[in-house]
Amino acid sequence: MTAILPSTAATVNTGFLHFDCVGKTFPTPRGPYVAIEDVNLSVQQGEFICVIGHSGCGKSTLLNLVSGFSQPTSGGVYLDGQPIQEPGPDRMVVFQNYSLLPWKSARDNIALAVKAARPHLSTSEQRQVVDHHLELVGLTEAQHKRPDQLSGGMKQRVAIARALSIRPEVLILDEPFGALDAITKEELQEELLNIWEEARPTVLMITHDIDEALFLADRVVMMTNGPAATIGEVLEIPFDRPREREAVVEDPRYAQLRTEALDFLYRRFAHDDD
Ligand SMILES: Nc1ncnc2c1ncn2[C@@H]1O[C@H](COP(=O)(O)OP(=O)(O)OP(=O)(O)O)[C@@H](O)[C@H]1O
Questions:
Q1: Which of 107, 201, 268, 272 makes a 20 to 30 Å CA pair with 144?
Q2: Which residues are registered as beta bridge partners of 179?
Q3: How distant is the alpha carbon of residue 69 from its chain centre?
Q4: Residue with CA nearest ligand 1 atom 28
Q5: What is this structure's pTM?
Q6: Distance between CA 199 and CA 132 in Å, rounded?
Q7: Is 57 annotated as a binding residue?
Q8: In whole angstroms, what is the distance from residue 236 CA to residue 233 CA?
Q9: Where along the chain is ATP bound?
Q10: Domain ranges of the chain
């Protein structure tokens, strides 16, 4: 006997965040431009994914589909089985350029987000959330400064604290440390891992830095070049957590994974512009 099942046409149950044959084509004056094509990936809840690939390969295009700022032209992107159709507080984006409100203090930038996204919390609970997140990123002392009174690293700390204070299910990071000096960058990578361990959002992060990806991610997704870019290879990163940078870098598997990534990017999918 054949059982009659409810229709599942609108839902997909593979992975928490699921890319199913995703394509995105942009109309241009010279005709349609196929940016990405046939992207398939299943991300588990709480997983940390880094996406690397050459400039213009479609990394931001992919992230915009997850944030809901744009829609795929073929296939679908699903969160918890539901197609992503618009932006929402369950998915927060942190950009390279901080995007803080310039006239508000660090504290108020975070407080406003908490107020808007978690209105069910009492005023004192909201205050506690803000205090906690300022502390997590080491900005308790500097909380009353405005963005123009903060360093680049401090601004990015505020942006990360603001995103996480909303308790998003998915944290989307678009090259968040790209503009920072090497030391600040390493500090923030470590802070990000500490915060991620606490809240465990699913993370999707674009980076151009192979070492950053190997230190942070559970899996590194490497994209081929466009047009019609797709996922070329996925590296599983085996290092135990919590991670210590020295232990990771000294692990013999680190050099091997690094060589694989370099080989992918600079030999198999070399790009003239890089
Ligand atoms: N709105 C648009 N209209 C036309 N083409 C677009 C549009 N947005 C992106 N593209 C093209 O799609 C391709 C992918 O762009 P995308 O910004 O996703 O790349 P990226 O990998 O994030 O690049 P980068 O590392 O330089 O930020 C590029 O060739 C880009 O020119």
A1: 201
A2: none
A3: 14
A4: 56
A5: 0.91
A6: 12
A7: yes
A8: 10
A9: 53-60
A10: 15-89+168-266, 100-166
* Count of beta carbons in the 10 Å neighbourhood of residue 219: 17
Structure tokens at 186: 């390493």
Ligand 1 midpoint to CA 228 (Å): 11
Who contacts 92 (Cβ-Cβ below 8 Å, separation ≥6)? 163, 164, 166, 168, 170, 171, 172
105 is in an annotated binding site: no
Task: Fill in the amino acid letter for 125.
Answer: E
Centroid of ligand 1 to alpha carbon of 246 (angstroms): 35
Spatial separation of the C-alpha atoms in residues 189 and 186, rounded to whole Å: 5
Superfamily per CATH, domain 15-89+168-266: P-loop containing nucleotide triphosphate hydrolases (3.40.50.300)
pLDDT tens digits in sequence order for the chain, 274 residues long: 444 444 444 555 578 999 999 999 999 999 999 999 999 999 999 999 999 999 999 999 999 999 999 999 999 999 999 999 999 989 988 887 768 999 999 999 999 999 998 999 999 999 999 999 999 889 999 999 999 999 988 998 999 999 889 889 999 999 988 888 899 899 889 989 988 998 899 999 999 999 999 999 999 999 999 899 999 999 999 999 999 999 999 999 999 999 999 999 998 888 765 5
How many other C-beta atoms can be found within 10 angstroms of the C-beta atom of residue 160?
Answer: 25
